[in-house]
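Severity: low
Component: inverse-folding endpoint
Summary: output formatting inconsistent between runs
Steps to reproduce: submit the following structure tokens with default settings.
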């Protein structure tokens, strides 16, 4: 009996060691992913970049055990026959020309995965009119292997939404990026993301964040939230009771996995050494024959959902900007830019990214290039904040004794047809619109310096970092950095950008 026990233990140890060896040698691969709107013939394509539609279908189609999807909203199946829809009134030929079938193919891939008895979880915000959460609800209906949850972050933070866009398949393949689960994000909106295949270590960490959000949906909100005076942001707001914005003596213990505990800090504790994982990543889309281990990281928002030693998303954006070398260039791409909050009852002034940009302009003589979307739902006030940021160019050379040679350049990204979006028919009348609602926009959220790439899901507005769910992947991998630079430069150098003009200089004379 003792001999059998020893033999069983030996076999178990061999199995464990084999599993560990297999995982440590697993070939993690990464591809950049993007969606390019139709009717943009003058946008240069970057070789080796995958399409979002293909990646979503692969993730669903290759899923054999488990599939977790995190999204703001769903509309994979177009609704040109629904008078309430922004797709209404467009013909079958129009929808074919728009590429709407790509969304239907993704939906069918998910349906097939559900029918294969894959364990599936859908987690999203409340969705948008008129479909709301109809598609994930339909996929979950009658299928015990499919779970569907809607999470309203405004109940926890007073405002905010589930805005992250994440797919995790078989606990080893991941998509993180800007694309929503709708057909328009596949063929009518400019999106950027990253696809990581065969990366179980990364997938497990992203799954912890997913599990934390999932748990929030089932907790008693009133028992776990507090209304506090936020010393850092100088507003009264609602936060989870374990938040660092709650006075240390009044905090509760977090019910979430591995929450970052810093007992004597009020506000978000910036980490001096956020966790970086060293690992080789193959880049089939941009050949890198060295396969040397590189530093990589994950970051999350809002701060109350941090765990381990992972950094908050705001810090990751700031650190990416500050990673730029002396005289080098950092490129920033976003849909929205606003130096304040947008959705809070009290307004927050937010200068984190602007300050980081000005700092590298002065200290490192860096060039900073920023692409911001200009579209139908452009935020009023953006232009003023961008122009104020451009004034750093004048300040940079204002000192007689210590001039700097850095430069900030900002352009609007204008997708053709942005001002002709909406239903083709409204109240029985032809509108003259050429594209469905909420299309024709640059929606990507990323930054890339000369050494570091950061690919995220958050717009550059305060709310997205402090009340809204967001996830980012970052890396110092030179092939990913180089290819992301090329994606940015293709957009920057296209005829679809317009320079933001600086404010007129005000001259003050003293007598």
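Observed output (run 2 of 3):
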């Amino acid at each position: 009996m003792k001999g059998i026990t020893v033999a069983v233990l030996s076999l178990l140890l061999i199995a464990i060691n084999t599993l560990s060896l297999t995982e440590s040698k697993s070939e993690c691969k990464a591809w950049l992913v993007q969606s390019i709107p139709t009717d943009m013939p003058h946008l240069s394509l970057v070789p080796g970049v995958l399409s979002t539609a293909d990646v979503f279908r692969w993730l669903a189609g290759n899923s054999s055990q488990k599939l977790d999807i995190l999204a703001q909203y769903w509309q994979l199946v177009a609704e040109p026959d629904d008078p309430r829809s922004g797709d209404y009134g467009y013909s079958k030929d129009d929808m074919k020309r728009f590429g709407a079938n790509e969304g239907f193919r993704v939906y069918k891939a998910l349906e097939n995965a559900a029918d294969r008895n894959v364990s599936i979880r859908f987690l999203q915000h409340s969705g948008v009119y008129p479909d709301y959460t109809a598609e994930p609800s339909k996929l979950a209906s009658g299928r015990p292997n499919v779970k569907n949850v809607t999470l309203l972050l405004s109940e926890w933070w007073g405002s905010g939404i589930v805005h992250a866009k994440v797919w995790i398949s078989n606990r080893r393949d991941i998509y993180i990026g800007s694309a929503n689960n709708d057909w328009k994000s596949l063929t009518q909106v400019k999106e950027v993301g990253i696809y990581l295949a065969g990366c179980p270590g990364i997938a497990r960490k992203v799954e912890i964040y997913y599990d934390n959000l999932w748990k929030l949906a089932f907790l008693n909100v009133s028992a776990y939230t507090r209304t506090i005076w936020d010393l850092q942001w100088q507003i009264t707001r609602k936060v989870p009771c374990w938040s660092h914005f709650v006075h240390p003596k009044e905090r509760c213990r977090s019910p979430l996995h591995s929450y970052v505990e810093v007992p004597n800090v009020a506000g978000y504790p910036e980490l001096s050494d956020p966790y970086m994982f060293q690992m080789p990543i193959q880049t089939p889309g941009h050949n890198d024959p060295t396969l040397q281990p590189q530093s990589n990281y994950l970051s999350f928002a809002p701060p109350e959902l941090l765990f381990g030693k992972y950094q908050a998303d705001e810090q990751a954006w700031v650190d990416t900007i500050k990673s730029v070398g002396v005289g080098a260039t950092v490129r920033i791409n976003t849909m929205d830019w606003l130096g304040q909050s947008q959705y809070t009852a009290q307004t927050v002034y937010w200068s984190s990214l602007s300050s980081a940009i000005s700092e590298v302009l002065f200290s490192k003589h860096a060039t900073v290039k920023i692409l911001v979307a200009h579209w139908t739902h452009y935020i009023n006030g953006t232009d003023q904040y961008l122009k104020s940021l451009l004034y750093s160019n004048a300040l940079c050379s204002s000192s007689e004794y210590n001039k700097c040679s850095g430069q900030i350049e900002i352009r609007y990204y204008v997708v053709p047809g942005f001002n002709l979006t909406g239903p083709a028919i409204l109240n029985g009348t032809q509108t003259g619109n050429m594209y469905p609602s909420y299309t024709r926009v640059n929606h990507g959220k990323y930054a890339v310096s000369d050494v570091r790439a950061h690919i995220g899901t958050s717009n550059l507005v305060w709310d997205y970092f402090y009340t809204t769910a967001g996830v980012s992947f970052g890396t110092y991998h030179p092939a990913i950095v180089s290819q992301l630079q090329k994606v940015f430069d293709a957009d920057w150098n296209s005829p679809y950008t317009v320079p933001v003009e600086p404010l007129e200089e005000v001259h003050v004379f003293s007598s």
